[in-house]
Amino acid sequence: MSAVAEARTRCSWCGDDPLAVAYHDLEWGVPVHDERQLFEMLTLEGAQAGLSWMTILRKRDGYREAFHGFDPERVARFDARRLAMLATNPAIVRNRAKIAATVANAQATLALRAEGGLGRFLWGFVDGRPVQTKPRSAADIPVQTAVSKRMAKALRAHGFRFCGPTICYALMQAVGMVNDHVTSCFRHAELSESAGP
Length: 197
Prior knowledge:
Layout: H1 3-7, H2 18-26, H3 35-48, H4 53-66, H5 72-75, H6 80-86, H7 96-112, H8 118-123, E1 131-132, H9 146-157, H10 165-174, E2 178-179, H11 186-194
Parallel strand pairs: 1-2
């Protein structure tokens, strides 16, 4: 990492771990519409429940391998034998309920294609444009909102699991549906400008 990069002001949550810094600088808050990427982030945010985000980041490659690059068509066909194997895989979080939810969510993702797809469904909650917030500190950032509550309810109605309001808000932050970088963070201005007027 260059001295210039190190001197930048960032959101406090990313600390100085290179993996977290790279995720913060290059991914967190960047708008994502691709079905596979959205399915990946929904899976990872659900896997994080009760754990640290660093734990999930360190297992991300393991998840990508175990779930075939988050191809929902392949994951939707996982059977009981595959689920049992995944529950013994140390490269992912070995929580049977979370693993089963990933398969159920893949099936629900495929079903949503008839309604325009997962991207259209999720982005519909913010009218297709990133919500620009101006938090001055982490204390100003909520863990859930009225929108994430509506999203969670709608996802559950479509067969998704491990998608409560807090997980949904974390997803919204991760995939750029909301710009929750603190105003002193260099990424806040960059993402605000890229969103346009």
